[in-house]
Amino acid sequence: MPRLEFADGFSLYYETHGPDIATSTLSPILLAHGAGGNAAVWWQNIQAFSDKYPVITFDHRAFGRSPDITDGPGRIAFGADTRALLKHLKVDNVHFVAHSMGGRTAFGLFSREPEMIKSLIYSGTNGGCVDESYRVLKSQLEQDGTLAGSLLQRAMAPDFAKTNPERQFLYRQLRGLNPKRPKDFLAPTARMINYKGTTAQRLSESRLPILWICGNYDRVVHPDLIQISHKLTPGSQYVGVPAAGHSAYFENPSVWNSSVRAFVDKVELDC
Predict the structure, then answer these.
(1) What is the pLDDT along the chain (271 residues), one digit of tens a residue?
(2) Percentages (nearest 5) of helix, strand, coil residues in the chain
(3) Which of 98, 41, 113, 42 is nearest to 229 (CA)?
(4) What is the C-alpha R_g of the chain?
(5) Where in 6-158 does DSSP place strands (E)?
C-alpha cells in the first residue's frame, strides 16, 4: 500500500489511478473526502475520470488508513499534508475536488501554494466563502429545523436509505473504517465560531475556475447557502444534483461525475 512517511512518524495513505502522473500531459484530479468518509468512498467516481486523467485519492490524517500520531496536529495539518503528498508525487498542480470537510483542506493548500491548484471543485462545502447574508440564512435554517439532526442522519437525502438500502449500508460500513477520534476533533474552536472573515475575496482575485456542486436535498450545507458562495465568486459555476443530499457523489454518482468531468475537461481545453 502506498504511503507517505513523515519525519514525526505520521504515515499518510494514498492511491493513484489511471495514467501515470509522470508522463501525463493533463493535471491530476485530487479527491479529498469529507468527515464521514475516507479514500474508499470514491469507488463510484474514480473510473469516471481515470480513463483520461491521473486520479489521486488519500485518507486525511485521522481517517481511514492514516491514523494520527499521539498528540498530533490533527485537522490543522490537512493542507500541509496534502502539499507534502503532491510534492512527493512530483505534481505541479491539480484539479482539487473537495467534498465537505475537504473544503478546509483545499483552502489550506490554496493559502500555502495557490499555484498547485488548477481548478477548484467544491462539493457540499462553502469553502469558507461566506458573507453576512450567508450567516443570517444559515441561522434561520438552523432555527427552523431544516438543518436538524446528526451528521450521519443528514449525510444523505431523506429517502435515500429507503430507496437504496444496500448503498446506505455500504456507506455506513465505509464510514466505520475510520479510526476513533476525539469527539471534538472537528468541533469549531472559539476562534472559528467568532470568525467573521471570508475566503470570497481571495478566491475571486485568484481567477481560479471554480465549480460549486451540491445535492438538491443537502441538509448539511443547504443548496441556498451554496448559491450564495457561488454568487460571491463571479465567473464560477453551480450545479445542483437531483435526488441527492449532502453526499451527492455517492447518492447520484452519474450526474455528479458527468458534471465534474465536463467542468475539468473544459478547464483543460481552455488552458
Answers:
(1) 799 999 999 999 999 999 999 999 999 999 999 999 999 999 999 999 999 999 999 999 999 999 999 988 889 899 999 999 999 999 999 999 999 999 999 999 999 999 999 999 999 999 999 999 999 999 999 999 999 988 888 999 999 999 999 999 999 999 999 998 877 777 666 665 666 789 999 999 999 999 999 999 999 999 999 999 999 999 999 999 999 999 999 999 999 999 999 999 999 999 8
(2) 40, 15, 45
(3) 98
(4) 18
(5) 11-17, 29-32, 55-58, 94-99, 117-123
The DSSP code for 143 is H
Residue 63 is classified by DSSP as B
Contact in structure between 211 and 236 (CB atoms under 8 Å): yes
Cell numbers that stand for 181 in this block: 477520534
Query: Are 22 and 11 contacting, i.e. CB atoms less than 8 angstroms apart?
Result: no
**How many CB atoms are closer than 10 A to CB 206?**
16
Rounded Cα–Cα distance for residues 241 and 255 (Å): 7
> 246 CB contacts (<8 Å, ≥6 apart)?
100, 124, 154, 155, 156, 215, 218, 219, 220, 221
**Total count of domains within the chain:** 1
Question: What's 9's domain CATH number?
Answer: 3.40.50.1820
Bridge partners of 63, per DSSP, are 66
At 203, list the grid cell: 478566491
Expressed as residue numbers, the domain containing 176 is 3-270
How remote is the C-alpha of 22 from its chain's centroid? 25
